[in-house]
């Protein structure tokens, strides 16, 4: 089938299925947060079991896939007939809407209180701001957008050890928002920027350029998906092997070969390192190639969730929170303590 023969309004089901898969996997991570009493990082190999480590590592694919495929979807919306002005307007409004949801409904689902002295911004914020930036980038030639994406993704680790001692207070705050996972104070309000912007904007820009593959005929697209996927994994193995670039933490020898492998793939997500993006997006490209024209009950299950990702994200967050509360009550806490918990979660005081 030639590119011209592709129906103008046809959705790419492999993208929706891939998005649905990571949406379901994401629930594993958040249910562990809400329903366990862990007081350490599940990727801390000095404490975590192999199974626990894997439950966390597999969810690394979620954020990278969300942001990357959001860029791809933006490109496909233009290829289906939207003008760049229409696409830019949609990206701007959608981005602002996502930031609003992050600050309201999603924040309440995570923190369960109305005290806005503390705010923390996660993946939905990163997607929203990246969309706003992409609304401007789409007016540039595609090679320029790709170059910007590559520079941000492959080059941002050069600044991991940048000293900010010479920065002004405002300059340091801006740098924290762009590149460092940390807290910035705005008067009496403390904002925890869990997802710094620089690499995520680059990821969405590359995802936008990646959308060009889905205008090609299937055999050529699948070949390129496999090539890019294997290439990303090969680059990851090459630079990770020597611990010289791509991640602020080095891998170390463990007490067994499989724990060595875990240490090797134990990469930094906050902020996302180059190694993190390579080891997540590389396999995602291979999965997209494998999902081409696959139709069965399993893919149909994931397809449902992949087509309504935002609704699913919000719904699963509140369901996990409800399960957490019910677990608290069922495990023998008295009514007074349960009542205090409700006040604490809703209004921010015990």
Description:
It is globular, with a radius of gyration of 21 Å. A three-stranded mixed β-sheet has the order 1-3-2. The chain has one domain. The protein is mostly helical and 350 residues long. It contains 14 helices and three strands. Helix content is 65%, strand content 4%. Strand 2 and strand 3 form a beta hairpin. The N terminus and C terminus are likely disordered. The termini are far apart.
Keywords:
350 residues; mainly alpha; 3-stranded mixed β-sheet; 14 helices; 3 strands; disordered N terminus
What's the helix count? 14
Number of strands: 3
| Rg (CA only) | 21 Å
**Tally of separate domains:** 1
- Provide the low-confidence segments as ranges: 1-8, 334-350
Shape label: globular
Mean pLDDT: 88
Trace the largest sheet across and list its strands: 1-3-2
Structural class: mainly alpha
Produce the secondary structure layout:
Blueprint: H1 13-35, H2 50-57, H3 60-79, H4 84-111, E1 118-121, H5 123-137, H6 142-155, H7 169-179, E2 182-186, E3 189-193, H8 197-210, H9 218-241, H10 257-265, H11 274-290, H12 297-306, H13 309-330, H14 335-347
Parallel strand pairs: 1-3
Antiparallel strand pairs: 2-3
Helix pairs in contact: 1-3, 1-12, 1-13, 3-5, 3-8, 3-11, 4-5, 4-13, 5-8, 6-8, 9-11
